Amino acid sequence: MSKFTIALAGNPNSGKTTLFNLLTGSEQYVGNWPGVTVERKEGLYKKDKEINIVDLPGIYSLSPYTLEEVVSRDYLIDENPDVIINILDATNLERNLYLTTQLMELGIPVVIALNMMDLVDKTGEKILTNELEDHLKCKVVKISALKKTGIDELIEACEKVKDDKVEPLKIFNESIEKYIEDIKNISTKVDYHNSIRWIAVKLLENDEKIIEKIGLDDSEKNKLNGLLNKFEDEFDDDGEGVITDGRYNFVSNITKHIIKNKRSGLSTSD
Ligand code: GDP
Ligand code: MG
Ligand code: K
């Protein structure tokens, strides 16, 4: 089997370090990400030394607002790991799925690890993984990094999908999707490292760092600005606001359908 790289991505406190330690055992290499003091951890999967595991900083989003987010997105689009394990705190599914909608756009196969299942099971809540897979079009594996369950199945799922060609999901409404398609046609540069959909959405959000990264020239920037002006007139909001709302809508629709016996949040005295 040829060597491949799995990147671990997830919100802070989703159990990334616990999972990373479990997968790599004592074979870990700790350094810094280039140019910044954010810690970079890598290791080999202890049951198969051909599998390289990279632990990304904990993040809520792939926006340019924190160093951790920039480090993570630069790594994912520039170094192209073979698979992303997106680890989620299954007791906080709705919040954790927001990042998932972004990771799914990168053109890299994603396997979802629903972590903390030991806690979910105690509440009597049920998460319908098959339905979740249907909504997200990617493999979902229930795990507990603490109790060490589901781990072999998680890595097997990664091996299965690592060479898949990913067709990113269209999660926004038709009129937004139309703009994303138009932006793809501004320049071949939008297809930067096979992350075309993710880059196009970032351009719709007018993300300066990405505009610079892919090197749009003045005439391409003019075309982009023309589209963005039209967009803001049509939606009466900027691209970033509309995209953020779109992600929340998609996620809240999904969680309505996949969680049974959901805790209300209000305790009753029965
Ligand atoms: P990170 O911030 O994503 O690296 O998360 P950590 O690995 O540091 O985990 C955060 C907390 O959740 C720690 O107290 C862990 O012991 C705990 N934790 C991690 N995975 C699980 C799990 O599957 N079940 C339970 N009950 N706790 C977990
Ligand atoms: Mg950690
Ligand atoms: K990529």
UniProtKB/TrEMBL annotation:
<protein>
    <submittedName>
        <fullName>Ferrous iron transport protein B</fullName>
    </submittedName>
</protein>
